[in-house]
Specification:
two-stranded parallel ribbon; 6 helices; single chain; mainly alpha
């Protein structure tokens, strides 16, 4: 989420991780695998859709399942991230990860204005693309 405050001499931004669009994608995926009932999903999605106008510039960083798993394995091996050094197993079902990727990708079709960024690129390339989108 991006917010600009006009009364200040500097531009302030808020980048919000795992916001409304994330919940939309995950509720769709949960419904499709049978872990969320349709009436609840529809009400939940309706409530979220009412909040989307509060997001000035939605950015969706997508990475394919193979790259995602490879990065997790590196983080575990190198001890770079505590979350991955616990006993939480890596997902074995690449099909489920591909489904999530597809669900997230489809958000752009339903909700206009989303900027999809290919996060298979380097951190520097992704950063530059964000800077370009935000005109910084």
């Amino acid at each position: 989420m991006l917010k600009y405050y006009e009364n200040q001499t500097e531009v302030d931004y808020l980048i919000y991780d795992r916001g409304f669009y994330d919940r939309l994608a995950l509720s769709t995926a949960d419904y499709e695998r049978g872990s969320l009932e349709e009436p609840f999903k529809n009400e939940f999605v309706g409530n979220l859709e009412g909040k989307l106008a509060t997001v000035d510039v939605p950015l969706l960083l997508l990475v394919d399942p193979e790259t995602s798993l490879a990065r997790k394995e590196i983080q575990i091996r190198e001890g770079l991230h505590e979350y991955f050094t616990t006993n939480i197993p890596l997902p074995k079902d690449i099909g489920w990860l591909q489904h999530l990727y597809d669900v997230y990708s489809s958000l752009k079709e339903k909700y206009h204005g989303i900027h999809i960024i290919d996060s298979k690129k380097t951190k520097e390339e992704v950063h530059q693309e964000v800077v370009n989108i935000l005109n910084l």
